[in-house]
Amino acid sequence: MKNRLRVAYNRLSLIQRRTVNRIAASLIAMGLISVANHFVLEYGDRARALVVVFAALPALPVFAVLIVVGRYLVRESDEFIRMTVVKALLWGAAVTVAGDMVQSALSALNANFWGLDPGSLTLMNFDLFFTASLFSLLIQLRRNR
């Protein structure tokens, strides 16, 4: 499995590798910010300014990833690959919206037995979006072989 990932990574063009590296760095930053956010707001001082800062801080990696993907789409010269990436991003957005609708319906039903915490599920939107986009991209590339 490790060799397959290395081979797949080496097959990417330079711009694709840079994009993957920057998205990975943003996802790591998102994880670190989320952990810091949890510990500061759970165990730290809840000053209003600190709450506002930690509420806005997780948006930075999201914007960074969107900027990186936008720059990639502008620089990609192959129209087929560009269209495939855009389709994958649209599928990722569709899955995320569907997941949010299910979550809001269960929250409206006051479904405490599901163990759904709205705060933790909204943090997973970013992960759900990129996971669904990745699987959509893999399915499209496999189908177009």
Order of helices and strands: HHHHHH
Total DSSP helices: 6
Structural class from helices and strands? mainly alpha
Task: Please tell me the overall pLDDT.
Answer: 81
Spatial separation of the terminal alpha carbons: 21 Å
Coarse shape: globular
- Report the sheet with the most strands, covering strand number, pairing sense and barrel closure: none
Helix content: over 70%
Q: How much is the radius of gyration in Å?
A: 18 Å
Find the count of extended strands (DSSP E, 2+ residues): 0
The low-confidence parts are: none
Number of domains: 2
Query: Which percent band covers the strand fraction?
Result: under 5%
Structure in words:
The structure is a single chain. The chain is mostly helical and 145 residues long. The protein folds into 2 domains: 1-77; 78-145. Helix 2 (14-43) runs antiparallel to helix 4 (59-75). The chain has helices at residues 2-11, 14-43, 48-56, 59-75, 79-108, 118-143. It is 84% helix and 0% strand. It is globular, with a radius of gyration of 18 Å.
